[in-house]
Amino acid sequence: DQTYYIDEFRRKYYLERVGKSRPALSVDVLNKQWCRKNDVWGTNVGQTQYSCFDHRFKISDLDGSLVAKDDIHTQRAQRIIEQQYAMALKVRERQRTTLTIEHDDAIDYEATLNQMFGEEAIITFPMLWAEREDYSYRVYNKMCHNTGWWGKDGQLTDARLYSWLIELTNNANELHQFQDMQPQGWTSTASGLVRSVPVMMKGTNPRKIFVVMSDGDDSSFPAKVTDRYLKQYNLCEKIRSGILERSQTHTDRVDIYYVSTTNSSKRVNYWKDYCTGQGNAAKAVNRQEIVSLIKGYLSDEIGNFSQ
């Protein structure tokens, strides 16, 4: 079927664009000059009555015969279509299960680690104002909840993000924006840590401090991503060494801490073992404990706050 619809849309392109160019071509002339009439056609045979393509450029097919490079019905083209279709099908099926574009099959981990120190690779996705579960516009469902949705708080005039990035700042009013956030869940800890790196690169303090804070485990598929980042790709060490190696940051020390705001020794030990190191991961289950712990991290010289 996919070949038929490729053929159909190509036909429309030739009719609407090539045929109406200057000088304009009648349909008969277009068919003779740019298209091939097929003896059989339909979705069951994968082609329309007229298959249109550029005849001028030739290439050897898989069997050695000379064919038009632009013809989608050659052996070479059919193999490419089948491969690309299989890839697209996998992407579609993965989005139905992972509910986020940042899943294990989609991430180039090594490229991410190499490019996370700058903003060149950051992509901002435009988001249509739609219903929360509108898969026609929000295929990666869980990833998009923090953008809000029209059934959440009213009409388009009320559209806003429910959580967002705050850059490094000394302005208390900007920091107070955190009180207005309403994060919608689907925890992805490593994603937040990676995104914070180019922000920290802008800092002028010779000591860079990352505090990762979470009230629960990563959700199912983000957990696989975090596991790969921390265990296989040694994310936290790459962050520390990468910042120190870049002289423009004027950095002489990088620390990464983890705070669990729920009573989870398992999660604290996980981050201690695979990221922060001994003494830099702890539990803090109420406001005063969190404040005291972070103050300790900020003044810590030897790392002695683990629980």
Structure, described:
- The chain has 307 residues and is mainly alpha-helical.
- It folds into two domains: 2-75, no CATH class; 109-299, no CATH class.
- 41% of the residues lie in helices and 10% in strands.
- The chain has eleven helices and seven strands.
- The chain has helices spanning 2-18, 27-34, 75-98, 109-115, 150-153, 172-175, 189-200, 220-232, 235-245, 265-276, 287-299; strands spanning 35-37, 50-52, 58-60, 66-68, 207-214, 253-260, 281-283.
- The protein is elongated and about 80 Å long.
- The model is unreliable at 302-307 (pLDDT under 50).
SSE order: HHEEEEHHHHHEHHEHEH
For the terminal residues, how far apart are their CA atoms?
60 Å
Summarize the main sheet.
Answer: 3 strands, parallel
Q: Name the shape in a single word.
A: elongated
> Helices and strands: which structural class?
mainly alpha
Query: Helicity range of the residues?
Result: 40-55%
Into how many domains do the coordinates divide? 2
Cα-atom radius of gyration: 27 Å
Q: Strand order within the widest sheet? A: 5-6-7
